[in-house]
Input
Amino acid sequence: MSSRLVLLGGALFLTTVAAAAQQPANPVPLGVIRVPPCQPASDPEYGLVQKKPIPIGGGPMYMAGRQRNYLNALRGPQGQVLRIGNSVGSAPVPGDPEHAIVDSFSVTYDGENGPVGKTIFMDAYHFDAPKVPVGFTCGAPLATAVGLPPADPFRMTPAVIALAVEHGTITDVPPIPLDTSTPRGYLFDQYGSVALRARAAAAAGTPLDAKNPSRDLQSNGWSVLAIPVSCGDRTIAPANVELSTAQGTVAREEFLRGEELPKAFPGLPTPAGSLGFRFRNGQPTQVKITYAESCSGAAAEVLLPLRREPPRLVELVPGVVPPGVVEAEPVVYVQVVVDPAGHIVRPEYLGGPRSLYPAALDALAKWSVQPIRINGVGVVTPNVVQVPFRP
Output
């Protein structure tokens, strides 16, 4: 069996070339690699003992759905549908450096002599290409059922805050303009809000501590500063702001005005009539500003679509296997933060061979990424990336 790297549509895929008899099913995509749809585990204890759980990923926020999707795709040895117990047991993994918690699930399928019960163990704090435990089969491709996990916000949010404090302490971080053609105000994500405060604190000679941020920096959501607009020889103040996603309106958590604005948006001009708003987290696609009156007969409401450019991997540099290291599946999974300039920072091990993790970090330092941009401004993005290695 041999492997090769193929560039398709700007993404690098690691493909395995094998005889049809050795690989009866076509591989399915899992991020930038392709894997067997129902790959049997080579370890007879995989997923069947607590110390060797299935690394399903997702962390506390996403693990329930990912665990259920995996179990729904799993089948008994003759393709029997599994019955999944309602109770879940949890326990820490002894000696795990990431302090993972393992969940156990009781499953049952119909055997020749009656119901057969098994216990499946899963780890939501690590991830690797999912496999089939010994004694089971699958009814759907496992990689398709679970996919790559999203970045765990409980681990990545502190990394974003620390990065914002570091950046804001040494430089101005540009806010996202609400309108690229008319000055109407600014939009801030958590990174932008924290960086703004860090910049003001540094200017005042009281810099924030990136390693021990205060609790009020940890609120995760969006902020909007709306300012009055010019209309001939007068200005018209905003009366309300709504933030929307593709699913609907984002709930508003705070309304700010007057003397509250310079404290919430330090260093930014807040002319008389400006308003501030804080919203819950989401992926905003549009801002609606309602002004106190119309200008020259135009509507008092202005809809401002947020132009969102998706992230793009410009160059993926594969890792190089160190001399003397042999791994059957040389792919490392890493949680990272992509900063506004496209740099990959704050890496955290997620899965794959630990022997290759240092080499994976060396490879990541050479990657080139275009970050997500909103109205032309790069924004911070936590992500999960795969580092494939040259055969």
In short: Residues 59 and 125 are 5 Å apart (CA to CA). The longest helix spans residues 153-170. Confidence is low (pLDDT under 50) at residues 1-23. Residues 41-149 form one domain.
